[in-house]
Design a protein that fits this description.
Elements lengths: L1 H15 L10 E10 H12 L3 E2 L10 E10 H9 L4 E6 L2 E6 L31 H7 L1 H7 L4 H8 L18 E9 L2 E2 L8 E7 L2 E4 L1 E8 L2 E4 L3 E7 L2 E4 L3 E7 L2 E4 L3 E7 L2 E4 L2 E7 L2 E4 L3 E7 L2 E4 L3 E7 L2 E12 L2 E21 L2 E12 L4 E7 L5 E7 L4 E9 L2 E9 L6 E14 L2 E13 L9 E13 L6 E13 L20 E5 L2 E14 L1
Parallel strand pairs: 2-5, 6-8, 8-10, 9-11, 10-12, 11-13, 12-14, 13-15, 14-16, 15-17, 16-18, 17-19, 18-20, 19-21, 20-22, 21-23, 22-23, 23-24, 24-25, 25-26
Antiparallel strand pairs: 1-3, 4-5, 6-7, 27-28, 27-35, 28-29, 29-30, 30-31, 31-32, 32-33, 33-35, 34-35
Amino acid sequence: MLKVFIPFIFLFIPFLGKTQSVDLDQFVSFKFKAERLENVLSKISQQYAIPFAYSKNFIPIDQRMNITIDNQPLQIALDSLFAPTKVVYAVIGQSIVLRISRSKQITTYSKSLEEPAPLPIPKIEQRNYTITPFLKKNSYSLLKKYRTIDPAVLDKLKSLPNQELDISTQYTASPYRELFQVTFIPTIRSNLYADSVTNTFSLNVFWGVNGGVEGIEVGGFGNTLRKDMKGLQIAGLWNRVGGDMSGTQFGSVFNYNAGYTRGQQFTLGANITQETNAIQLAGLMNIALQSFSGLQLALLGNYVRTRSNGLQMAILFNRADGPAYKQYALFNKATEIQKTQVGLLNIASYVKGQQIGLINYAIQTKRTPIGLFSFVKEGFNRIEVGGGESLFANFGFKLGVRKFYNILQFGYRFTNDNWSLGYGLGTGITIANRQHLHIEWVLSHVNEGNWWTKDMNWLNQVRLSYDWKLGKEKTSIFIGPTFNWLISKIRATETNLLTGSTLPSYTLVDTNREDANWKIWFGAMAGFRF
């Protein structure tokens, strides 16, 4: 059988090494807003299998790009993408090689990003060099995986008859990848080019400064990388990455990444990152200097400078200077809450989700906050002045939203020095234009004959009031019945007999139960809210 297939195998051998080159006429679509150029190139490469070759030392990879391409040829898309930069490109072999052209004029499109590039640019001629098979064989995997050019391939590229692509000053022939390196201190190391080399295995006995890692790096005191880290990085004190991090970091004092972070970070001290999509666990703090997605868990606190799309959990505080998804801590602060904010003190400008806490503050909210005190600046906040049959004068605050609000209540009788201080909850139901029905419950401690009555003397009051708004202002009048239930343990001074409160003028029920006096009666109230 083998003898039969051998001729066919040799027949197809010439085609095995041939792969399709970059097609500048293929249609692409993408949209980026304030995205780093390096991330843009990476996402285009992953989506359309287009390898880019460039040097990070020359290409402005940190420049923020705003562009929308809707079903346009790749050539027009790239021309639009690089228009506001000095970057030019050319197809060599199976890759698009980028360089900087000092003579190129920067173009800023004034039209909407949703529109295609206004002026199509003629297609760049793709030259079939005699060196193409060599490039395919030697450089494709390197260009795609490492975004660099092998020294042997570099020499061939320099000899190409393409005057538009002067790459001799853009790329260097210094080694890029090494299997293993050992460093005692930055000046004593196994690799002369350590600060520009990416290693698979890196061991820093005390402290090392290397180019990058795509594998494992272990440091006695600390690890410092000038480029990217992909894999596992462990240090006794710190890890510092100058580029992107994808993987896992362990550092007892801190982990710091200057680029994009994806993976996990663990430390007893602080995790400090830029753009982040990761799980961050810290003994003290997690800090994201740009946007964050994932989980932040810290004993002290978490901070995100822009948008937090994940879960922030801490004992002391969480803070996001932009929108936040979920926050759980004693103190939480964000410009916008999309899902949940739970803590003793919650502060947000706009709440789409739910605030649950002892004290809640918001400028606007779509849902009802739940707490002991909830203040919504553009919500239902009223001062109430009125009176009833037992406490002739009542003064109160209502804070929250009309569907659910908190009540602080003060009442005074003007006789026998009787006064009360209470807290309650209420809800309002709209029955017509400018007309509402309010249901409230207030629990007050009633003081009789002295500054503060030490015995139990609690007045439970359920109120039903009709509220009619006056004009366009927030002023309204109200009137309605009340149900009163007063539980008292006040005893006569001389006889020590249980007598109860003297507050009500009349009662429907007056009885002693479980070492307390119960008095029940119906009453009425009326007044103004503004």
